[in-house]
Amino acid sequence: MADANRNLFANIRGVSETTVGIFVDYDSPLARKVAGDVWAGLSRVALGSGYTKTTALWESLREERSAKPLDGPLVHLFVIGQDRPDAIDAVRAAFHHENPRLYGVVVAVPSRPSPLAGSLLYQGVEHLTAAGVRAGLVEPALLHALPQECEAYARRLLERLAETH
């Protein structure tokens, strides 16, 4: 597993650390659980890939954010719970002209998701693309609070990061 992880990041030259901006709807128990599981997956995959330092900058999705983007994160992850769909309106892009950012949009779903969960996910992606983010820089997912499912998504995010940088 560690060898496979190491190969994942062979395309990111000179990178030994990574920072992820995680924006969570803390009012949603589903979003909190899934965000924690994705972060655990990101940590495991990054450690196995040779990153010497992995940092998460956690912020509330519902609190007002500065117009100035976070310094450092090449990945911005938005986690919304199906149980609190109004939080989708807080998904906003943070632009950094020197390095394009990769965006993750996750809708945390219960064991029996609502048929509207896909629409909610689409709205999150649409908020980013309407702000000028290329659709190819958005990795959407409907995730259950299952560590293996969240880790697979985390692996995909880091693979995409390797492809874009």
Give a written overview of the molecule.
The protein is an alpha/beta fold. The protein has one domain (18-164): Flavodoxin domain (Rossmann fold, 3-Layer(aba) Sandwich). The protein has four helices and five strands. It has helices at 2-8, 29-48, 117-130, 147-164; strands at residues 17-24, 53-60, 75-81, 102-108, 138-143. A five-stranded parallel beta sheet has the order 2-1-3-4-5, with helices on both faces. Helix 2 links the parallel strand 1 (17-24) and strand 2. Helix 2 crosses helix 4 (147-164).
Tag the structure with descriptive keywords.
165 residues; globular; 5-stranded parallel beta sheet; single chain; disordered N terminus; 36% helix; alpha/beta; 4 helices; Rossmann fold
Topology:
Elements: H1 2-8, E1 17-24, H2 29-48, E2 53-60, E3 75-81, E4 102-108, H3 117-130, E5 138-143, H4 147-164
Parallel strand pairs: 1-2, 1-3, 3-4, 4-5
Helix pairs in contact: 2-4
What's the short story on this structure?
The protein has helices at residues 2-8, 29-48, 117-130, 147-164, and strands spanning 17-24, 53-60, 75-81, 102-108, 138-143.
